[in-house]
Design goal:
This protein is α+β, with helices and mostly antiparallel strands. It has a single domain, classed as Alpha-D-Glucose-1,6-Bisphosphate, Chain A, domain 4, CATH 3.30.530. Helices cover 37% and strands 24% of the residues. It is built from 3 helices and 3 strands, in the order βααββα. The chain has a 3-stranded antiparallel beta sheet, with helices on one face. A hairpin with a 7-residue loop joins strand 2 and strand 3. The radius of gyration is 18 Å and the shape is elongated. It comes from Salarias fasciatus (Jewelled blenny). It holds the Pfam family PRELI. This is PRELI/MSF1 domain-containing protein.
Length: 133
C-alpha cells in the first residue's frame, strides 16, 4: 500500500528573504518537534519500547517515508516563493493500512507545524531587516 501526500504553499516573500530566514529560524516557538526537514539521521531502536511491544510492530524496514520538499520562485510574482512538499508512505505488509493512515496524519500535522515555524522565522527576519535598514 502506498499513501501520497502533497502540500503547496505560496510564501509571500522574495526568495532571498526565505533562504535567509531558513538559516536563522531557531530559536522559534514552533520548533519543539523538528521531525521533518531538519533530520540528518533517524533510527528506530528497541530501547524506547515497553517489553514485548517491539515484537508486535513490524521492523522499520517494512514502512518507508520519503519526504521531498521543493523550493522555487513563485510563478505569479517574483516576490513570492513556492514551497511544495510531497511524501510517499509505503509498506508491503498486508493489513498495515491503519498505521500508514496514522503516519500520514502525523506527517501532515508535522508539516503544518513546520509551515508555522517558517512563517514565524520569516516574520522575525523581516522585522530585523526593517529595523537595520
Amino acid at each position: 500500500m502506498v499513501k501520497y501526500f502533497c502540500s503547496s504553499t505560496d510564501i509571500r516573500s522574495a526568495w532571498d528573504h526565505v533562504v535567509s530566514a531558513f538559516w536563522q529560524r531557531y530559536p522559534n516557538p514552533f520548533s519543539t518537534h523538528v521531525l521533518t526537514e531538519d533530520v540528518v539521521y533517524r533510527e528506530v531502536t528497541r530501547t524506547g519500547c515497553p517489553a514485548g511491544a517491539s515484537d508486535s510492530f513490524p521492523p522499520p524496514d517494512h514502512l518507508h517515508l520519503q519526504p521531498q520538499p521543493h523550493y522555487s520562485h513563485g510563478l505569479r510574482r517574483l516576490r513570492t516563493t513556492l514551497l511544495k512538499r510531497e511524501a510517499w508512505i509505503s509498506s508491503g505488509i498486508y493489513g498495515f493500512s491503519k498505521p500508514i493512515q496514522v503516519h500520514t496524519a502525523a506527517t501532515q500535522s508535522s508539516l503544518m507545524k513546520t509551515s508555522r515555524n517558517k512563517r514565524a522565522s520569516l516574520h522575525s527576519k523581516l522585522e530585523t531587516i526593517t529595523i537595520t535598514t
